[in-house]
Amino acid sequence: MKLTDFDYELPEELIAQTPVEPRNSSRLMVLDPVEETIEHRHFYDLKEYLEPGDTLIFNDTRVMPARLLGWREGTGGKVEVFLLRRIDGDTWETLVKPGRKAREGQVVRFSDELTCTVQETTDFGGRIVKFNYEGIFEEILDRLGETPLPPYIHEKLQDKERYQTVYSREQGSAAAPTAGLHFTKEQMQELKDMGVNLGFVTLHVGLGTFRPVSVENVEEHVMHKEYYSIAQETADLIKATKAAGKRVIAVGTTSIRTLESAATAKGEINGRTDWTNIFIYPGYDFKIVDGIITNFHLPKSTLIMLISAFAGREFVLKAYETAVQERYRFFSFGDAMMIKRRG
User: Fold this and answer.
1) Which domains does the chain have, with CATH numbers?
2) Are 172 and 204 in contact (CB under 8 A)?
């Protein structure tokens, strides 16, 4: 399987720069991989494709104000430190720009109350740093840190909460689980009232989101580890849904990766907390997920490979070609796609 097998042409003007209002007024492309049909709806129509007893699984991670801007002690050169994950206490895995000058022992100052010292380089080109501060780290981070937006978004976000889902609660992510950005609290309540179950897992999005696939043979790509947690209550809900013959529908690729990582067998899952580097591409046998709600993903990304594993590569690329023709909005603040149960 070649990297070029997952490429497509995307006009730059279709990359959404700002979110729509209200959240659920975005467009919704509905795919049926069995019948190979494509429907064009809006996200507020989602209820028409769900049944009582179906279960939606959401990733409740919350994006950290992970981007810190500082300067190197000694030279005053500007430095950006991007938090990926806490390793232990005040030690974090980060991305540092410019990285070539972020050598071991380098001190970066962000303010009078916060500095960090570079300790080592990671296998993925990041930096392990240790923070030094006076006060409470999370409060300082809230004041000094910026909410990171993907590099393809060039406009400033007026409301930081628009890059958070309405159900986010577990802070620790370097990026938002963007499929969930379409849901409003009212819509979630409406689905609950009609008998749809709402379940929650946590996966903190890390370096894997930012690393492009650099190998031509996709099977050789190695994913970065990310922390996930699934409560036994959620696992029991999933097993009950399966036992009743209903669908488990994952909201976003992070929810898919969490569910498939925690699966013990076909239709079987247990509550657990762990790290995952699961890489899902065509040929993968899904154990839990029966349907997907997702956004439109970057060409040649691990995310479009995951969606292709579920719905078929040729059909997915046909849907993306249709989305371009129909002027759908792409990526984080773009439109959504629902993929029905596979055959």
Assistant:
1) 3-63+159-339 (3.40.1780.10), 67-144 (2.40.10.240)
2) yes
Residue pair 330/150 in contact by the 8 Å Cβ criterion: no
The overall pTM is greater than 0.85: yes
Summarised one tens digit per residue, pLDDT across range 105-129 is 999 999 999 999 999 998 888 999 9
Q: What whole-number distance in Å separates Cα of residue 306 and Cα of residue 171?
A: 25
Return the closest-CA partner of residue 161 out of 267, 21, 46. Answer: 21
Least confident window among 5-19, 37-51, 211-225, 277-291: 211-225
Q: What pLDDT shows up at residue 125?
A: 83
Within its chain, how far is the Cα of 292 from the centroid? 13
Taking only the tens place, the pLDDT of each residue in 11-37 is 999 999 999 999 999 999 999 999 999
In sequence order, what E strands does the chain have?
27-32, 37-42, 55-59, 61-63, 67-72, 78-88, 91-97, 107-111, 114-121, 127-133, 170-173, 197-203, 226-230, 248-251, 263-265, 268-269, 272-276, 291-295, 336-339
